[in-house]
Amino acid sequence: MSPSTRDNELNGLYRERDAKFDEIVSCLQRELHPDSAGLTNMDWEQLAEYAEELTDNWATAEADNRLSTATTELQRLLSEHQEYCRRIIDVLDTPDV
């Protein structure tokens, strides 16, 4: 894979991963704060921190083979986020040609 092709693929995967993370934050917001009109910037930061913790825990559980099938919307989003992370690692591990 040429360096420019690799960079383009990585940039696309990073965008998709980041968009999936935003979906996770939105899902948490809907579950924890159904009335989003009253959320402060601090509330959104806390939701993002919680989402970060969940993605890290999901990756650890997946690596340890401790996950069952994703059944909730949040679990599905976490699983999809982790798939993007794996794909990024695969591209990064592919030697340049």
Structure description:
The chain is mainly α. It has one domain (3-93). The chain has three helices and no strands. α1 (3-32) crosses α2 and α2 (41-63) crosses α3. The mean pLDDT is 92.
How many E strands?
0
Q: Biggest sheet, in brief?
A: none
Which percent bin holds the helix content?
over 70%
Q: Poorly predicted ranges (pLDDT <50, ≥5 residues)?
A: none
What is the C-alpha radius of gyration, as a whole number of Å?
16 Å
Order of helices and strands: HHH
User: Structural class of the helices, strands and pairings?
Assistant: mainly alpha
Sum up the overall morphology in one term: globular
Number of helices: 3
Briefly, what is this?
With 97 residues, this protein is an all-alpha fold. The chain has three helices and no strands. The chain has helices spanning 3-32, 41-63, 73-93.
Characteristics of this structure?
0% strand, globular, mainly alpha, 3 helices, 97 residues
Spell out the blueprint of helices and strands.
Elements lengths: L2 H30 L8 H23 L9 H21 L4
Helix pairs in contact: 1-2, 1-3, 2-3
